[in-house]
Protein backbone atom coordinates (compact mmCIF):
# COMPACT_ATOMS: atom_id res chain seq x y z
CA UNK A 1 0.00 0.00 0.00
CA UNK A 2 1.51 3.32 -1.01
CA UNK A 3 1.52 6.38 1.17
CA UNK A 4 -0.66 9.29 0.07
CA UNK A 5 1.14 12.07 -1.74
CA UNK A 6 1.34 15.18 0.45
CA UNK A 7 -0.46 18.28 -0.77
CA UNK A 8 1.44 21.47 -0.18
CA UNK A 9 -0.56 24.50 0.88
CA UNK A 10 1.34 26.97 -1.29
CA UNK A 11 3.86 27.23 -4.07
CA UNK A 12 6.38 28.36 -1.45
CA UNK A 13 5.76 25.27 0.69
CA UNK A 14 6.18 23.00 -2.33
CA UNK A 15 9.41 24.78 -3.26
CA UNK A 16 10.76 24.54 0.29
CA UNK A 17 10.04 20.80 0.48
CA UNK A 18 11.60 20.20 -2.94
CA UNK A 19 14.71 22.26 -2.19
CA UNK A 20 15.18 20.98 1.37
CA UNK A 21 14.31 17.32 0.96
CA UNK A 22 14.52 16.63 -2.76
CA UNK A 23 10.93 15.39 -2.60
CA UNK A 24 9.82 14.37 -6.09
CA UNK A 25 6.16 14.90 -5.19
CA UNK A 26 6.96 18.43 -3.99
CA UNK A 27 8.95 19.03 -7.18
CA UNK A 28 6.04 17.86 -9.32
CA UNK A 29 3.60 20.03 -7.42
CA UNK A 30 5.89 23.06 -7.58
CA UNK A 31 6.33 22.67 -11.34
CA UNK A 32 2.56 22.32 -11.76
CA UNK A 33 1.91 25.44 -9.70
CA UNK A 34 4.38 27.50 -11.78
CA UNK A 35 3.37 25.98 -15.13
CA UNK A 36 1.86 29.26 -16.37
CA UNK A 37 5.15 31.03 -15.51
CA UNK A 38 7.08 28.33 -17.40
CA UNK A 39 4.82 28.71 -20.45
CA UNK A 40 4.94 32.52 -20.34
CA UNK A 41 8.70 32.64 -19.93
CA UNK A 42 9.14 30.23 -22.81
CA UNK A 43 6.88 32.37 -25.01
CA UNK A 44 8.80 35.50 -24.04
CA UNK A 45 12.14 33.92 -24.94
CA UNK A 46 10.77 32.65 -28.26
CA UNK A 47 9.81 36.23 -29.19
CA UNK A 48 13.45 37.27 -28.98
CA UNK A 49 15.24 38.03 -32.23
CA UNK A 50 17.06 34.84 -33.22
CA UNK A 51 20.30 34.96 -35.18
CA UNK A 52 20.09 33.92 -38.85
CA UNK A 53 20.87 30.26 -39.42
CA UNK A 54 20.10 29.29 -35.83
CA UNK A 55 17.27 26.81 -35.45
CA UNK A 56 14.67 28.24 -33.10
CA UNK A 57 13.70 25.70 -30.41
CA UNK A 58 10.08 24.80 -29.78
CA UNK A 59 8.13 26.12 -26.81
CA UNK A 60 8.13 22.58 -25.38
CA UNK A 61 11.94 22.47 -25.65
CA UNK A 62 12.31 25.73 -23.73
CA UNK A 63 9.75 24.68 -21.13
CA UNK A 64 11.69 21.46 -20.52
CA UNK A 65 14.94 23.42 -20.17
CA UNK A 66 13.28 25.77 -17.65
CA UNK A 67 12.13 22.75 -15.62
CA UNK A 68 15.68 21.42 -15.75
CA UNK A 69 17.12 24.72 -14.52
CA UNK A 70 14.56 24.84 -11.69
CA UNK A 71 15.58 21.32 -10.68
CA UNK A 72 19.25 22.34 -10.61
CA UNK A 73 18.42 25.32 -8.37
CA UNK A 74 16.28 23.10 -6.12
CA UNK A 75 19.14 20.62 -5.74
CA UNK A 76 21.42 23.45 -4.61
CA UNK A 77 18.80 24.27 -1.94
CA UNK A 78 19.88 27.86 -1.39
CA UNK A 79 17.25 30.02 -3.09
CA UNK A 80 13.73 31.13 -2.34
CA UNK A 81 11.25 30.22 -5.04
CA UNK A 82 11.12 33.74 -6.54
CA UNK A 83 14.93 33.67 -6.73
CA UNK A 84 14.74 30.19 -8.28
CA UNK A 85 12.43 31.45 -11.02
CA UNK A 86 14.86 34.22 -11.91
CA UNK A 87 17.87 31.90 -11.74
CA UNK A 88 16.15 29.39 -14.03
CA UNK A 89 15.18 32.13 -16.49
CA UNK A 90 18.70 33.55 -16.52
CA UNK A 91 20.18 30.06 -16.83
CA UNK A 92 18.12 29.43 -19.94
CA UNK A 93 18.99 32.84 -21.39
CA UNK A 94 22.67 32.04 -20.86
CA UNK A 95 22.16 28.62 -22.45
CA UNK A 96 20.56 30.01 -25.62
CA UNK A 97 22.61 33.22 -25.80
CA UNK A 98 24.45 32.02 -28.88
CA UNK A 99 21.22 31.76 -30.85
CA UNK A 100 19.05 34.62 -29.65
CA UNK A 101 19.46 38.14 -28.41
CA UNK A 102 18.44 38.17 -24.74
CA UNK A 103 15.04 39.80 -24.19
CA UNK A 104 14.98 43.28 -22.73
CA UNK A 105 14.29 43.46 -19.02
CA UNK A 106 10.60 43.93 -18.41
CA UNK A 107 9.36 46.60 -16.06
CA UNK A 108 7.27 45.08 -13.30
Question: Main attributes?
Answer:
mainly alpha, single chain, 0% strand, 108 residues
Question: How would you sum up this structure in a few lines?
Answer:
By secondary structure, the chain is mostly helical.
Task: Summarize the structure in words.
This protein has 108 residues and is mainly α. It has one domain. 62% of the residues lie in helices and 0% in strands. The chain contains five helices and no strands. The longest helix has 18 residues. It is elongated and about 45 Å long. The protein starts with 10 loop residues before the first helix and ends in a 12-residue tail after the last helix. The model has no long low-confidence stretch (mean pLDDT 86).
Task: Tell me the domain tally.
Answer: 1
Principal-axis shape: elongated
> Number of helical segments?
5
- The computed structural class is mainly alpha
N- to C-terminal distance? 48 Å
Mean pLDDT figure: 86
The major pleated sheet works out as:
none
Series of secondary-structure elements, N-terminal to C-terminal: HHHHH
Q: How many runs of DSSP E, i.e. beta strands? A: 0
Q: Give the strand content.
A: under 5%
What is the CA-atom radius of gyration, in angstroms?
A: 15 Å
Quaternary organisation: single chain
Poorly predicted regions: none
Q: Helicity level, as a percent range?
A: 55-70%
SSE diagram, text form:
Blueprint: H1 11-21, H2 24-33, H3 35-46, H4 59-76, H5 81-96
Helix pairs in contact: 1-2, 1-4, 3-4, 4-5
Amino acid sequence: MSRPTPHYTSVGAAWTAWAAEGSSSAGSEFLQRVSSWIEGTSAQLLRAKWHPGIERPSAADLEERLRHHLEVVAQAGQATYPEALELARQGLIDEIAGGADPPKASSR
